[in-house]
Amino acid sequence: MKGSIIRLAILFFICTNGYGQEPEWVVEENNFEYTMSFVSFLNIDGLNLNSTSDKVGAFVNGECRGTTNLIYVKSKDRYYAYFNVFSNTLGETIHFKVYDSEKNQVTDISETVKFETNALRGNLSQAFSIASPALNNEAQLLDFSFKDIEVVNKTENDQEMVLYLNNGVNPTLLKGVFELSDGSKLFHRGQQLISGTSVLDFSSPVYLDVLSQDESMKKQWVISVRYTTRSSSIKIYKKDAVCYNGGAIKVVSDLNGGEIILFKDQIEYAKLPIVNGEVLFTDLLAGDYLLKTGDLEKNVEIILKE
């Protein structure tokens, strides 16, 4: 009985001691000719690791080829893993292990990387993700509107959105309300935006960056604000073409700062801003034209007079 208790005590000591200690991963750097570098962040079960006691190891066929603890970068207020992976052979498969010091646990990472000489994966703005489970790699802006502001109409083409607002809305102090792909973040000039809180000036097109959860993908979107157009606020005049002179279309409007787009044969022909209440398109050939501004469209025919 006494012998059994001693054996159980020894077994308990071995198990708890092995589970609780930080792994001693060692790299024999002098045995290798080439390196590959990583600037990474570590994520386990959806949470970023944030301790200098946390660490990552890179392995090839069970042999440690690179390791480091997290370090804190004050300028980014974030923890990163900077490390090199060593090899003598291109294309070797690199496996990763992550040690979570709070849980005293080592996790095997399912995603692998092929070794490339002198390659760099990740940077301070887009760090390389070492995570279990793998994080989302999509960077989509699914929807965008404004807090407490009615969006009358919205158009989207590729990664450009145009939001039509009622006349009189001040575009300089708008709070964007947005929906992103799972885990993504939205940035403007490097500053992360908070939906319904961050204030931006939309008097001119605003360029926004969507960064995927795993930071492998970044996409830029352009958000523009325009205003709905009442037909009563627009007056259109035309001058037909003659043999020695092209025709003309004049648009008179009280919507200064707006934009008039002229199409011919369904192709954009010209685009001009409304300045001092008017826009003038000149030297027009005979044919059918379409004027667009805001949500207003107007067909105009220029004929050739003899």
TrEMBL record:
Superkingdom of this protein's organism: Bacteria
Q: Report what the protein is called.
A: Uncharacterized protein
In which organism is this protein found? Cyclobacterium amurskyense
- Print the organism lineage: Bacteria, Pseudomonadati, Bacteroidota, Cytophagia, Cytophagales
